[in-house]
UniProtKB/TrEMBL annotation:
Keywords: DNA-binding, Transcription, Transcription regulation
Cited InterPro entries: HTH_MarR-typ (IPR000835), MarR/SlyA-like (IPR039422), Tscrpt_reg_MarR-type_CS (IPR023187), WH-like_DNA-bd_sf (IPR036388), WH_DNA-bd_sf (IPR036390)
Residue span, HTH marR-type domain: 6-141
Highest rank taxon of the organism: Bacteria
PROSITE patterns: HTH_MARR_1 (PS01117), HTH_MARR_2 (PS50995)
Name of the protein in its database record: MarR family transcriptional regulator
Length: 153
């Protein structure tokens, strides 16, 4: 039986996750939005308007990197800046309607490509993969959750 120690599991799964990640983004390059830009947009959709510093912390990136990504998104009218109602000196960033629409379009496109990858599995492997969905989503939801509450000051 395979080890259930977290480091052993990580060592066994990391190379495959890296390979799948690279392959997934290669076949889903139709969008000219980068992975980090999409992540920021999804965070804004899920959590609402946030300060640039909050976005940077939540994404695990430096302020200049977040600011640059947001500037690029703003140039394309996918996000907009607005005055922080709690602190008039501050600025929050929110997703625009166009941003929501583009995020949905790219999400559907990438779901299609991922489904094509998953569709190559046998029926037995599809059942096993289905059992992993909740675990993968739990990891994704909890990873970095302690870094930020974007609705906080």
């Amino acid at each position: 039986m395979a080890s259930t120690h977290p480091e052993d599991i990580a060592a066994r799964i990391r190379p495959a996750m890296t390979k799948l990640y690279v392959m997934y983004f290669r076949i889903s390059e139709q969008s000219d939005l980068t992975g980090p830009q999409l992540s920021i947009m999804a965070r804004l959709k899920d959590n609402g308007p946030a300060r640039i510093s909050q976005i940077a912390r939540a994404e695990g990136i430096r302020m200049p990197t977040a600011s640059n990504a947001l500037h690029q998104l703003e140039q394309r009218e996918l996000v907009e800046r607005l005055r922080d109602e709690q602190d008039r000196r501050g600025v929050r960033v929110r997703l625009t309607r166009l941003g929501e629409s583009e995020l949905a379009r790219v999400g559907e496109e990438r779901t299609k490509y991922l489904a094509e990858m998953i569709g190559t599995l046998s029926e037995e492997d599809l059942e096993r993969a289905s059992d992993l969905v909740d675990i993968i989503n739990k990891l994704a939801d909890s990873y970095g959750a302690d870094l930020i509450d974007t609705n906080a000051g």
